[in-house]
Amino acid sequence: MSYITEEIASNLKAAREGRGLSQRALSEKSGVPQGHISKIENGAVDLRLSSLVALARALDLELTLVPRKAVPAVKSIVRSGKRSIVKTDSNTRMAHKELSSIKTMIDTLSKNDFPIGGLEKLQRQMRELGNFQFAQPDLEVIKNVNEAMKAFQLNTDSLDIIRQSETELQKLRNTLAHSSVNLPKVTPLRPAYSLEEDDNG
Known about the structure:
It contains 8 helices and no strands. By secondary structure, it is mostly helical. It is elongated.
C-alpha cells in the first residue's frame, strides 16, 4: 500500500470513528460491504475509486483535487474542521442524553394522566429535537430545561415550569431549524452507470 493510499484509509477510519459509526453502520450508509471496509482500513486491499466516493459521501466528505502548493493550507483547514466536528458531536451526544432524561419525565407524567396540555407539545418537541445537531449554547438550554423538569417533579403545582420549558424548547427548535449546520443534506444524483463495476464496491 502506498503512503497516499495508507493516509486516505487512515483518514476514512478516523472520520468513521469520529462520527461514532461502526463499520457495519458505515456499510449500510455507503453500500460498501462491511468486509471490504475492514480490508480498506487494514490496508489489505487496494482502495478503488468507486468505494472511496461511496465512503466519502456517507461520511459527509468531499473528494477534490487541489494544487500541490495549496495542500498545507487545506490540511490546516481540515484539522480545524476535525476539532469542530468532534466538539459538535460531543455536545450532540450530551444533548441527546439530556433530552432522553426530559422525555422519560414527560412520559412518566403522561402515564399518570397528569392534566397538563403542555405535555403534548413537549413530547412533540422531543421528537423534533432528536433530528438536530447541537452546539454548546444549545446544550445549556436543554440542561436548564432538564433541571426545571426535575424541580417540577418535586412540586407539580408549579405549572409555569411546564409552560416555560415548552417555550424554551420551541425557541431552540426554531433556531436549530434555520441553522446552516442542521439544513437537510441533499443526496447527489447517482449516475445510471459506473466507470468501475466491481462486486466489492
